[in-house]
Amino acid sequence: MYKETWALFNGPEGVQSQVMRNVLIESHILHLRNLIHFFMRSQSHYTDDILVSNVLVNADGYYLGDENELTKMLNKSAQHLTTYRAEMLDKTVLLNMIKDIYPVICERIDRFEKDINNPDRLQETYRNDYEEYIKERKVLRIVI
Predict the structure, then answer these.
(1) Contact 39/63 with Cβ under 8 angstroms?
(2) How far is residue 143 from each of residues 79, 88, 89, measured CA to CA in Å?
(3) N- or C-end of the chain: fewer Cβ atoms within 10 A?
(4) DSSP letter, residue 64
(5) Tens of pLDDT along 41-91?
(6) Cα 15-17-19 angle, rounded to 5 deg
(7) Which contacts qualify for 115-119: CB closer than 8 Å, 24 or more apart?
(8) What's the N-to-C CA distance of the chain in angstroms?
């Protein structure tokens, strides 16, 4: 979904309708937030969150680092009606940051999709409980 919204937004025809532009931006921001959370954290505040470290053995190479200005902007723009949100969208600051991180996220997605098909890379839980793995793998594919 992340790559598809990006492709539609930046496609050769462009997006003529402001409503469709907003839908694509909102959808892309939402998926980007989820992916950053998935790749950024080794632990979460919530026990039911799925993180890369829950799925893969030795996921260190996936981590994006600590929360930063981009995550602050994404959180503000996707969760709250604020003057900050209006300023960031008007100045296209947020859109430029999203463009900059796009290849980084795509690299993580591509590598992750290869790794989840290698049983040696999976956490023991996923190797031992195939049904649970299949269920969560479907969830991950929806986001990715």
Answers:
(1) yes
(2) 18, 25, 24
(3) N
(4) -
(5) 667 777 888 888 888 898 888 888 766 777 777 777 766 667 766 666 666
(6) 110
(7) 115/56, 116/55, 116/56, 116/140
(8) 6
